[in-house]
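Let us begin with a simple case.
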Amino acid sequence: MRNKTIQVILTKDVQKLGKQGTLIKVKPGYLRNYLIPLKLGKVATTTLINQFELQQKESEMKQKQFSKKCINIREELESFGKFIIKKKISENGVFFGKITKSHILELITSKVNLTMDLNKNQLELPEMKQVGEYVIEIILTTNVIAKINIEILPE
């Protein structure tokens, strides 16, 4: 028996097979029964291969531009210095209330003029219960992380 395989271009990311635009070889039954009905892949023709290559080049260019933009934003945030928050504190140094991601986002956007919008999901906060300095990480992309210093002072 012949081991017949068909070349397929993935239209979406498929776990254990590859990412979108990847050229893979699969058996005809897998293509016919799984990939095509779920719109996860298409049979690779020369025109389709060329089309996906162009799309990949465009997406790589956009990704590089976005990475440069994120690096500039990281440098801008890290060069600012300390962000200061004033809170009422108790006798043992614990402040009242809670500092949320929304508070920190408002503080950052009011102090630094950013060219990119940040959201709460990009912030990683340490547990802040007492007066002092804390380092907050802002995840701009998977490989660009900005670290800013926040100091909590008594009112």
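The second case is a distinct protein. As before, the sequence precedes its structure tokens.
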Amino acid sequence: GRQLYESEPLFNKWINLIDGEMTKINNGEWRLLEELIEKKTEQESRINDTNIAQPTLFAIQVALAALLVSWNIYPSFIISHSAGDEAAAFVADRLSLKETVRMLPLSMSEDEVENKLLKGIEHLACIAVVNNPHLVTISGDEKNY
């Protein structure tokens, strides 16, 4: 990702766009550009922290897809798994960048999310993806944040 950021202006543009959206929702706790680009070694970066790694993977996947399309390379179909679900939804033009970045992965079961987290606020958020029995993604309308 770092090499493409430095050598490909379109990849750079997408990483910067996604960094802006992520910074808005994580209250400045961390920045994609800092963890991926500015910190030059894995030891300096928190890239191995799941809460940073998964959004970073999303950003790289989206920027790489944009780069491939710019080279006239288009997917015949899109398959995703786990952290790739959000990128696939965006690349398939099912969600806007803002909607996709606001999706929240949780280490809870579908039942726990439905009966504990979302109980009484179903009109504000819903389960967007069930990745495995103990990892779901919820999403909500931007105006409810």
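The helical segments are 2-7, 9-25, 32-38, 50-70, 84-91, 97-101, 110-117. The first strand starts at residue 104 and ends at 106.
Keep these points in mind for the review questions at the end of the chapter.
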